[in-house]
Specification:
mainly alpha, 0% strand
């Protein structure tokens, strides 16, 4: 499988993961009943699993062998923070205001992690400021 194909699979999974988190967050905040449907609970996990598999596969099939640099470390830390916030939004947080603030924070962390990956610098979008 070519590196370019894997990269595009990874990018599509990133977009799908973000979209699913965005929609599920809206449903949770608005107490929309569809947030409890089976597909809404299973599909995000399937997409995130494919995202993780493609990321590991990209790392091992990269033309540049070894750890790509500290930007990847920062990205992984940001993704861990995002996952923790997402878990808190969907399982622990009570009240619409708390959920909304945590959801928006998780979205911003996700987007910042994306800029770190695209620009391949630990400062992400802040590098242009």
């Amino acid at each position: 499988m070519s590196f370019l194909f894997l990269k595009y699979v990874h990018i599509v999974c990133v977009a799908a993961s973000f979209a699913l988190f965005f929609v599920r967050g809206l449903w949770i905040i608005r107490s929309y009943p569809r947030s409890e449907e089976a597909w809404a609970r299973i599909l995000p996990h399937a997409v995130d699993t494919l995202l993780l598999i493609s990321a590991v596969w990209l790392l091992f099939s990269s033309p540049q062998k070894g750890w790509p640099g500290e930007w990847l470390t920062v990205k992984l830390v940001l993704i861990a923070v995002y996952v923790a916030l997402a878990q808190y939004v969907f399982r622990v947080a009570r009240g619409p205001v708390t959920r909304m603030l945590l959801w928006v924070t998780a979205l911003l962390v996700f987007l910042f992690a994306t800029t770190v990956a695209v620009l391949q610098t630990p400062r992400g979008i802040l590098v242009v400021l």
